[in-house]
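One chain shown below:
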Amino acid sequence: MSDIRIASAEDQVLLDKEAKYCSYGDTVHYIEPPRIFSRCEGSYVWDTEDQAYLDLQMWYSAVNFGYANPRLNNALKQQIDTLPQIASQYLHKGKIELSEMIAVDAKNKFGLDGRVHFNVGGSQSIEDSLKVVRNATNGKSLMFAFEGGYHGRTLGASSITSSYRYRRRYGHFGERAQFIPFPYHFRGPKGMTKEEYGSHCVQQFARLFETEYNGVWDPKVGQSEYAAFYVEPIQGTGGYVIPPMNFYRELKHVLDQHGILMVSDEIQMGFYRTGKLWSIEHFDVQPDVIVFGKALTNGLNPLGGIWAREELINPKIFPPGSTHSTFASNPLGTAVGLEMFKMTNEVDYGAMVMAKGKFFLEGLQDLQKRFPIIGDVDGLGLALRCEICGPDGFTPDKATLDYMVEEGMKGDMVVDGRKLGLILDVGGYYKNVITLAPSLEISYPEIELGLKLLEQLLVRATQR
């Protein structure tokens, strides 16, 4: 193993400037010194010293289709040369056609008419969805959300994100959430199958409506104080926790009984990360609202949005001016989004992602057999998890994972004579989970390479 890495002279000059001039409010330095990157392509990024790193998190699943994807890059370049800018009060072809594509797809899958509303990113789109939900429920500002759930860090979004640290300094701004246990089977009660635990969690939620004294339901008028349940079908920051397939169907039944909307947050899991356009499709339910962002433009442009049922978002109930952003539905973003849809309609991304995910998961399961510190592995498509634990295979071990992340960023591992680094993302309730979100375009040899690099990190971790 190498010694602690020292920044180059050129990087140190930049890091000194960053320390003086940049807000730390939008920055997290997981390693010291932080890396400064200079180029990217496919599944790799290179630092200023031209050291290559295999990236298995792809900008938190924003770059689903690989860095510098030629087809998507060209769509952006072509739009720059035709209509790069136009105020959102005016129309352009891209906005209309992209909205149609999303709405028609939802109609075909869920049997529901709906409309699409754009904004500049995930958190902003969550804010818009809160407006839609509050408007449709006569101003109700209480929401259900999950323990381990993450929906963003703007004021409204942080109110329905389970981490108190995101709102501790700033308080609440209207919305409040009651956080409900998620069926995290690995850390759930022993003696239940995954499906039994999913049903158990739904039953515990349903008991809130058994009597008015549980605080959420007025049986005399048949109304809940809560407007919607915000769900990540697969938990993202919470550690890529995958619930049993019966869970959302049973949960939606309870919500429908009590007039509570289901909002599916697809910001991290949308656009084929799990082998479906929307991860909620795996669970045989009809969401009322879908929130999306990130990979819509492969990280080339900050564009997100919502799809909502016609009854919630038609112009009579959600009229012009209900919400606005200067850069919403900008033509550069919609051009890339349209090209992404065209690209994924030409190739069976669902089958491709599921096959690669199965291959990757089998590799993780092999590592789990050989390294007792891997307590749990799971995956759906190319959303995969690897939970690092103590020697007992269960006690969360954040320190060991932090060590692995730092070692991966040294860029000193060697596979077949090639020196490489490995970029990993950390998630989970205890920050001990490797959340793996590789490019959907990753090759099988690159998956094998990633597994070999992970193995080297596990060896270092167990021998240190």
